[in-house]
Specification:
mainly alpha, two-stranded antiparallel sheet, 4 helices, 75% helix
Length: 130
């Protein structure tokens, strides 16, 4: 196998991770610097044009990472209990992030993002290595 073919997954993982990081950084722009709210989601939450750009980068990079991880999952050879625990933690994380936007769980997004981040920090490096 040529060196270019072997390094292709690493480049793809790195590119997708950069998209995710750029999206997160854009979403951290303070609300006062974002401009007007285009779509109100709930009290205290709304989408501005800056948020749309950040969310688009985050969604495209995150989806790309997810596809790369799922494609490589059989090669990672993780035990079933580990996969179940990672899936449960990721589901809990996504659920808390979504619940914090549409309900009174305002600061629970940090707990959900941390749970999802742990799963990403476990699976993405494994995917890039194998």
């Amino acid at each position: 196998m040529s060196h270019d073919v072997e390094s292709a997954p690493r480049r793809q993982v790195a590119t997708a991770a950069l998209l995710v990081a750029a999206g997160v950084l854009i979403l951290f722009v303070p609300a006062g610097d974002e401009g007007r709210v285009l779509v109100a989601l709930s009290e205290g939450h709304g989408l501005s044009a800056v948020d749309v750009v950040g969310a688009a980068l985050l969604a495209s990079g995150g989806t790309w990472l997810e596809v790369l991880v799922v494609r490589r999952l059989p090669h990672l050879a993780l035990p079933p209990r580990t996969l179940f625990a990672l899936g449960l933690l990721a589901g809990l994380g996504v659920g808390l992030v979504i619940a914090s936007v549409f309900s009174g769980f305002f600061w629970w997004w940090a707990v959900g993002a941390t749970a999802l981040g742990v799963v990403v920090l476990v699976l993405v490096p494994l995917t890039a290595r194998r």
